[in-house]
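Hey,
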Amino acid sequence: MNWKSLDNNTTLDELSNLSFEHPVVIFKHSTRCPISHMALSWFERSWSQEEMGAVEPYYLDLIQYRPVSNRVAEVFGIHHESPQLLLIDKGECTYHSSHSAISYKELKKQLGKE
C-alpha cells in the first residue's frame, strides 16, 4: 500500500483541496496501540488500488504528529479516536469509523465501489 504521509498542516490543507478532485482516505494510527496495529494490518491487507482508483490514502502517526491529528478533528468536525479512518470528499468528512468498525468493505460501499 502506498501511503502518503500526513505530518503537517500544509499537507492537511492540500489533501482537503485535493478531495475536490477525488476522495481521500486518512488513517489515524497510534503506534503504541495493539488495536490500532490490528486495524491497520486488516485495512492494508484488504486495500486494492485497482478497486479504489483515484482514491488517495494518507497515513497519520498521531503519536508523533498529535497537533496535526487535533487539527484533523477541528477541520472536519470529527471527534478524535484511535485508530480512525476518515473519508474526505469535496472538503468534508463524509464517513468515519474507528477501532474494529474500520472496514475496507464499508469504505468501498461508501464510495459506491461495491
